[in-house]
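Section: Multi-chain targets

For targets with more than one molecule, the full set of components is provided together so that the structure can be written out for the assembly as a whole rather than chain by chain. Components appear in the order listed by the source. The example entry contains two components.
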Amino acid sequence: MAHRNPITSLTTAALLSAVPLLLSGQALAQYVPLGDQQSLAEVYHGKAYSPYAQRSFPSRVFWGDTHLHTALSMDAGLFGARLGLDDAYRFARGEEVMASSGQPAKLGRPLDWLVIADHSDGMGFITDLAAGKPGIIAFEQGKRWYEGLQQGGEASADAALDLIGTFSQGKIDPKMMAEYSPGGKTYASIWEKVVDAAERYNDPGRFTTLIGFEWTSLVKGNNLHRNVIFRDGADKAGRIVPYTTQAPIGSTDPLDLYAWLENYEKSTGGSALALAHNGNLSNGIMFPVDAQYTGKKIDANYVRLRAKWEPMYEITQIKGDGEAHPFLSPDDAFADYETWDVGNLDLSEVKTQGMLQYEYAREALKNGLLLEQRLGANPYKFGLVGSTDSHTALAAVEEENFFGKATNAEPKPDRMSHPFAENENGAYRGDMLVASGYTGLWAEENTREAIYDAMARKEVYATTGPRMIVRFFGGWDYTPADLNSRQPAFRGYEKGVPMGGDLKAVKGKQAPTFMVYALRDPIGANLDRIQIVKGWLDKDGKTHEKVYDVAWSAGREPDAEGKLPPVGNTVDVKNANWTNTIGASELGTVWTDPDFDPEQSAFYYARVLEIPTPRWVVYDAFRFGVSIPEEAETTHQERAYTSPIWYTPEA
Amino acid sequence: MSITLKRVLREPLLHFLVLGAGLFVAYGMVQKPASGPNEIVVTSGDIEHLAAGFTRVWQRPPTPQEMAGLVKDRVREEVYYREALALGLDKDDTVIRRRLRQKMEFIADDIVAQAEPTDAELTAYLQAYPESFRIEPQITFRQVFLNPEIHGKSLARDAGRLLAKLAQSGDKEDAHKLGDPSFLQNDFVALTSSEVARQFGTTFADKLSVLSPGQWHGPIESAYGMHLVLISERTESRLPALAEVHDAVRLEWGNTRRLQSNEEFYQKLLQHYTVTVEGLESMDPKTLLVANRQQ
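Its structure, encoded as tokens over all components, is:
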């Protein structure tokens, strides 16, 4: 299955094995330092001499989580979460907080940005609070409370109690009460707290907060959830309250959410987007091809709106990895990764094989090509992000620092043996929780606008937790020289499009080329290989997929069937350890699609695999001195999924 | 009343009053003294409330048809709500208990959330916790990468040769040409030390913070391998004046005050109760009074 063309092998060889002797003077044929042959002007194709001047492409990866819950979410509170918005932001930006379970928690490395997405249903429970006029202090009661509150400490607590008591006993001065004019009603709600906290913690250049919420559509236990993310601050996002799923105002139909988004943008002049997650728990309704769950036919309107409002998909998170399923991708040796396929979200219905094709991202990307041909737009043309969906206010998914799905799964000896959910239909075992994921995105700066815009143009990638740096470009004439140049990204943007982009057909070009390279997480594991996953639609309207190994660590060659041997495994389960003695710290190549047909629409994304490392259960077992359940996976190969690059034939 | 006082008043007291009042106004809507136990009156105030809620979501008032839907739903909710209370379904329900606890904590939060600190208070806070606001050093440097797998045992020798070459040419040499191939950048401009740590690991960042600028050093180990490094500029870490970090200090001050206030609020409430824990004789009742809320 693996394929290497001459260019690939040259590059890979140059990168991985040929270079060693260069410095000691024995130059090998494959590696030719570019600087010797080309003038500086040729190396830098920029408009200015200085390569950094007028540079207008994203040069840094910013790490974040698009999906974190705090105690404000009803279910999080039910599980015992005590931490709120402040704690969530403080933790994400690198501070130590006390977890709800009473143990200190701190991230190994801070995140650059965060979206708190609490469930919108129930978010506005303290609504309808009357606002008064600033003459309240004229009244004796008002003055007393005011002074008490200003003193702080015990006096303010006294004042608060007095105030509450007076209200509850109806002893409030009626004249003061009259100051509350019904016409002046404002709405203090949880949403205002959410917006206010985001504004307080947003620190452009250092730590970005994006305002968001989760629209928790659940149809008979089937997960149709979407997160909504705003580009805007309080001036716009604060004017609305989130859309809910509860009739009569809210609805569980995504089409109604799109209408709400449309209305938000129109009435506020703001921008917002939505992204779905956990298709794996939707029992076949996340990525419909023929009909929506409502029975309504998938039509031109549906595909157009979904494409417009959902530019990303959360492909990996604590409740399972959603890239591929072994049943759908039997030829992909790495498809069965952290798979959750027992049933729907609440296990009220068992999963059947027929559902899988409408649940996994790769299949949706393929079906998107089909729907585009059929209806004129591709509803599943999404970028890929990873998120935690943690309900602890802690975006903590490092394997050795995993704070679980909810407070009841924060670190403790029995959490891996205690089922996350279980009924007569099956179980999501405790050990199955996935310490995943984060989103890396390429942006020009760490601001709300830049972060949001990267999401909107899909220049994002998902990882299952590690922070590997991944570049992926598609164009028609990348060469190994581009990759070996001082700044491959310069060439990447000049000669093609980055992840999330569209490759347009160019006359006279044979096949697209892809420049892909990755640096391992500086404090993480080495890389095993880079793969390019291609999906396409043939002339009979059938979809196909193929996974190509395009770059790998030294010392291996594909066998006669093109299969690349495994990288090995250094994991010491007993001691919760592994070593970087296998794999490579960087990998990269320029790859040309050997099977390209210009008449067929296609997509390409890169999958970067780490060498095997311990899963979180191994660290738990080591630290708590407990044994790991037999059925639990102990090692895995963490990975990054880039957003795809799409090719569409000329009409 | 001074202008300053008015400004302060505008936010803190009102918001708090509003919150407190809202709770009980909302409560009052349910328990209307005017209506009998089996009478449900949807008041004009209720209707206004429903319409306003809709408007907030959709940025337009409801149509008559939508309004009818809202009222119908409200009546249904009210019937179920009253029946549920009559059946005692609110008792011992974890969701309801936690939600009510949360509401009380919000009240406590809002006592301080609105208070506006004076500059004197912020200065005092900054002086009390100076290290929290320290400005990080920034480093502008160039690195030449050496891959240990490539050089093996001759790494020290190769690095020495290269270092000598670089020492002669200073920063004129093309760093990219000299080292081993890597996707790492060669030049970094004004990187904070924590950014250096995030890109190269903490050991490397620590080393960089003590190297003298203007000359090549190395080899220095990072997460990726070895590096020869030339620092062209480094600004040292320092403690800022309030003006530079005003917003950050204000945020921290507010957070500290919020946590204190929450605890005081709880302690105050707790004083109204005698707490007995049966079967846990070993537990000192005093421990119940110790702050359980996280700092």
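Chain B has three domains: 3-110, 117-134+240-295, 136-235.
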